[in-house]
Amino acid sequence: MVIRALRSRRGYTLVEILITIAIMGVLAMFGPTLMTQITKFFVLSRAKLDLQQQARAAMYIITRELRQAQSNTITVDEVSGQPYYSRIKFTKVQGAVITINQSNNQLILTEGTDTSVLSKNLAYLAFTFPRSDDMTMISVSLTLEEQIYGGLLKALNMASEQVEVMN
Q1: Are 137 and 151 in contact (CB under 8 A)?
Q2: Is residue 18 domain-resident?
Q3: How sure is the predictor about 3, in pLDDT bands with cuts at 50, 70 and 90?
Q4: How many domains does the chain have?
Q5: Cα–Cα distance between 118 and 85 in angstroms, integer?
Q6: 144 near 156, Cβ under 8 Å?
Q7: Is residue 22, in this structure, part of any structural domain at all?
Q8: How far apart, in whole angstroms, are the C-alpha atoms of residue 144 and residue 155?
Q9: Which of 11, 26, 90, 123 is 20 to 30 Å from the Cα of 51, by its Cα?
Q10: What is the full DSSP assignment across 92-146?
Q11: Which residue range is the domain that position 37 belongs to?
Q12: What SS3 class is residue 85?
């Protein structure tokens, strides 16, 4: 009868409670750090993806427009207060005047009177001629930056060597 009374008792022992408290303490100690690292990884991955998409789209448009340029109309210079070689101006075969330039942190494409912003995360843009004797080849280099966490920046550099002007 005494044995049966002991078996019917339900509850937790002191050892079980102490083990549970220890496990909860370890989780409480490492949980915030783990969550912070997961959040940082997500933000960094998202910024990288956004920058890659913007860079690809901008480079596609720049390359497409440059291929339609008349090679004798291409001029590379700078906008006042911007990096050297950060503006290119040319006339397309169809007659439209195209300007691609950096304005602070924006990549601007102007066709006639229409202006488009290709990116709002531009850190650096340069147009150069890889060979001084061949004005039909243009090198385009751009760097995009996006602020992530804690004031840090994620940067992506994309260079496209030798965009060939077809005309």
Answers
A1: no
A2: no
A3: low
A4: 1
A5: 18
A6: yes
A7: no
A8: 6
A9: 90
A10: BTTS-EEEEEEETTEEEEEETTEEEEEES-EEEEEEE-SSTT-TTEEEEEEEEEE
A11: 29-164
A12: coil
Q: Rounded mean pLDDT of 123-143?
A: 85
- Percentage helix, strand, coil for the chain under 3-state DSSP, each rounded to 5: 40, 35, 25
Residue type, 86: S
* Alpha carbon distance 138, 63 (integer Å): 9
Element (H, E) at 151: none
Q: In whole angstroms, give the CA distance from residue 120 to residue 103.
A: 10
Q: Is the pLDDT of residue 8 over 70?
A: no
For residue 59, the tally of other CB atoms under 10 A from its CB is 18
The 10s digit of each residue's pLDDT in 70-112 is 888 998 888 888 888 899 999 998 889 999 999 888 999 999 8
Read off the amino acid at residue 149: Y
Tokens of 122: 């531009």
Whats the size of the chain, residue-wise? Answer: 167
Please enumerate in sequence order all residues whose Cβ is within 8 A of that of 122, keeping only pairs 6 or more positions apart, or say none.
Answer: 102, 105, 106, 107, 142, 143, 144, 145
